[in-house]
Input
Amino acid sequence: MAEYLIAGNWKMNGLRTELVEAEKTAAEEIADNCSVLICPPAVLLPQMTALLDGSKVRLGAQDCHPEDSGAFTGDISAPMLAESGASYVIVGHSERRLSYRESNNLVRRKMQAAWRAGLTAILCVGETETERNSGHAHAVVGQQFAECAPEDSTADKLVIAYEPVWAIGTGRSASGEEIADMHGFLREEASRHFGPGQEIPILYGGSVKGDNAAEIFSIADVNGALVGGASLRAADFIRIIRSVPVAQA
Ligand code: PGA
Output
């Protein structure tokens, strides 16, 4: 797999008229050591699948239900997302943890549903500002990781996204030291739980932009980014994609 994954999370943004932004991203030449993923609102997946056919850009969804089907009004299951062209799904985003009170146990069941459908799960973890200021960042993130990631997690079906809640959508990214510290911690936790051979990709998310991406990608144990706001405009997103370090020959 490519060494860097750049994933754009459009959240509840994007109408059909804005698909041109995905088209522009798909036209960009993407380096061999980089994978690009766009996670649009689920209703756009079928159309984007057709639009991105033949391009290197892959598609993901922003959430899934833990069951494969049933009487769950308004929800969307992992098999439906896979059928609509998604190969990834984000689970446990802090906006869902906070707005819909999603528990670690629910997030874990969503991951298992994603895997049953053949999707790679992007598991979001991250502490609030209060948790960081009281010295509990590692404890919170470690617990989220341990309780959400199933025992049979492997590098080909799990991506971790460290997203400090206080850095999301605020324009205030975590510092290089904070990112290095938490990614190193998550790398250790992943190898403690699943064995040192599992090089599970760890993305950073929270106010990643064209002008801080290169610095973030140079930090040890950062394997890419989960990008919100700056993924909505192709020009901004492409700047981030171009910030991926050139592969060593
Ligand atoms: P942001 O969002 O890039 O707008 O901070 C990141 C995310 O929520 O994944």
